[in-house]
Every structure is written in C-alpha cells, then in structure tokens.
Amino acid sequence: MYFHKVKNKPRLLLYFLIALTYALQANAQENTRSPELVQMYNHVEEFIIAKNYPSAITILKQAMILDPENTQLPEALGRVLFLNGQYDEAINTLKAIVEKATADNINTYHYLTLAYLCEGKTKPAMKYADLGLEKFISSGLLYNDKGKINVLNGNNKEALTSYLNGIDHSCIFSENYKDASQIYFKYGKNLLGAIYLEIYLNLPHDTTYDDTLKKQLYQGWENICKYNIVDKNTKKENSVAFWEKPNYEMAISTELFELSPTTSDGVSTENLTMLRTRFVMNYLKKYRATKLDFGLFDWQNEMIKNGKFDIYNEWLFGKAESEAGFNAWNTFHPGDMNRFLAWKVANPYPPLTVSSFLSFDFEDLFKKPKKVKDK
C-alpha cells in the first residue's frame, strides 16, 4: 500500500533520484553561463541523497527565482516537498503545473497522486492518475497508482484490472506483477499468484522485502502441491483454435497434477526443483511454438540446459524453507550462488510473451457465493 511506502521514504528515493538527476544535469548544461546555477543544481542532488530535504527545498526555491522559465524546477520542488512530508504544499506546487498543462513528466502526476493519498483523498488521487494516463498511456507506474487506490477503496476487482493493464502496457515495470500476485493469493489462486510473484522477483525491483516474498512464494507452492486438483469437466485438449483464448491456468495445472507424486512425501526445495524441472520439460514438449507457449518457462529451460536451474530454485526457495539449510547449502557449494547471480545478470528474464496470459478472464474470481434460502 502507498501509505506504507510513504512512511518508508527511501523506497521512493531511487525512482525520484533517477528522474531528478537527469533533469538537473540537463538544466546545468543549458545554463553553462551561470556557474552559480550549476553549483546550486549539484547541491540539490547532494542534499537529496543525504535526505536533507529542507536544504534541497531552499535551494530549489532560490533556483526558481534565478531561472523562472525552467519548468522542471517546480516539478522537482513538488517531489522534494512530498518526500519531506509537506503534502499540502506539494499538492499546490504540482497541481499548478498540471493545470497550466506544462507537466511533461510522469512523476508529476505520480507524486501528485501520492500526495493526495497521504492526505486520505482517494477521489482526487484517482483523478490525477487518470489525467496522467491520458498523457502517458503506457505508464505502468500510473496504472499501479490506480490499482493501489482501488485497493484502498476496497475495489479488488478494479485494482486487478489496473495492474493487468499496467503489465500489458509496460511489461518490464515490476511492481504490477507483485501487487497482482497479492490479489490472487488473497482469493486462493495460488498458481497465478506464484507465477506473477516469481516474475516480479526476476525483474528489477526494490529488494528490501525479498525474503518475505520468497516465503510467500514457497507457501504458495506448498498450497499448489496440496490443493492443485484439475477439474476434469473443464479440462481441454492441448490444441487451441485460433479463435479461442488460451487457458494457461488449465494447461499448467494439468501438467502439475500429472507430476503430483513428485511431492507426495512433502514439499521441499529439492522436491520443488524436481517437480519444476520435469514440468518445464513436459510443458514445452507439448506447447512450445503454440498459443500456450510461455516465456517464463522458456527462460527456465535455458537454466536447465545451462545447469543453473537447481541453483535458481535454491535462490528462490532455499532460505524460505530453512535459513540454516540455506546457509549449509552455500557452505557445501562455495561460490555457486555468486556464479549463478552473475549468470542471471548476463541472462536476465525478458518478459516479452506474457501479455496474453495476463489478460485472462478473471470474472469468476470475484463472484460471491449464492446464498442458500432457509427452508
């Protein structure tokens, strides 16, 4: 939830610094005739990195007096005001930019939305997230804002729609995968929750809570192995006609069900590795180059061929299963984890073939059970 993020301002700092650094560097280059301005821009960056927001605010206000035509300075000021907890002033500053139609940065709408959320005002927050999407139609960040607003309002169906739209428009923005996974887990869709969360963990993201999320992923797989029962009435043949929507969930569930004896003696990292290895090989044998092909499994198959999949599963599940066991594994396999992580950096997961899967029909997820009338 964004309230959690706001209380942990350093989590927002990375996104902010990237945008602000480019803006200030560009302005510094444009103002090479004014060494004073260049020095001021440099000081702003230094103060933000040091979390000395009041000093950054003071300098930005001074820079706006010296360089009143620079439209990026008010945007930067609004964001720093937000980081300093001055939400009303941040709203007034950023809102003025939007109303003058001079906002040409996604973060202007993003931080204006966040500032309203911090004030507990979800209606204007949604308004400016929507206005931002009118201008930046492919922003995974603004779709994520909409999703979080809907969650705060108790509208999980609309939230999931926002997250999936965000993924379809920007499949490399990781936050939407994680937040969608939380809704799936909440409604008992462990398979979908696990797939989305695994994708999130393999994309660039804030790693602060990775250990917690990996525990959730491990528990999700425990539930998959325990409760994955295929409905024989809805099971279809492997082929999918060109007019049919591919049912990834059914195809994956069916293959996992056939391999269920692999974890009959309990779920462990070792058993999950065997299960997932056999699953990838069987699934791709059936569905590669069909409408049911899935990029995550192709990437996992590359790890299998390169002898990395065992270590990958240890990276995902080892510590979640047992921290002592994970430490012992690293003791008996010195350097293996670091070599795998280096390989992973050189061979990152490319989320290029997921949109059709992520657009599946989820209407039944939110259906309320019919009430039984008293006789």
Your description of this structure?
The chain has 375 residues and is mostly helical. Helix content is 68%, strand content 0%. Helix 5 packs parallel to helix 7 (106-118). It is globular. The chain starts with a helix and ends in a 17-residue tail after the last helix. The model is unreliable at 1-12, 28-33 and 369-375 (pLDDT under 50).
Alpha carbon gyration radius: 24 Å
- Low-confidence segments, given as residue ranges, are 1-12, 28-33, 369-375
Structural class: mainly alpha
Order of helices and strands, N to C? Answer: HHHHHHHHHHHHHHHHHHHH
Number of helices: 20
Helices, strands, pairings?
Blueprint: H1 2-7, H2 10-30, H3 35-49, H4 53-66, H5 72-83, H6 87-99, H7 106-118, H8 122-135, H9 140-152, H10 156-169, H11 175-186, H12 190-201, H13 210-227, H14 248-258, H15 269-287, H16 295-305, H17 309-321, H18 323-332, H19 336-346, H20 355-358
Features of the shown structure:
mainly alpha; 2 domains; 68% helix; disordered N terminus
Could you write a compact summary of the structure shown?
By secondary structure, the chain is an all-alpha fold. The chain folds into two domains: 1-170, Serine Threonine Protein Phosphatase 5, Tetratricopeptide repeat (Alpha Horseshoe), CATH 1.25.40; 186-368, no CATH class. 68% of the residues lie in helices and 0% in strands.
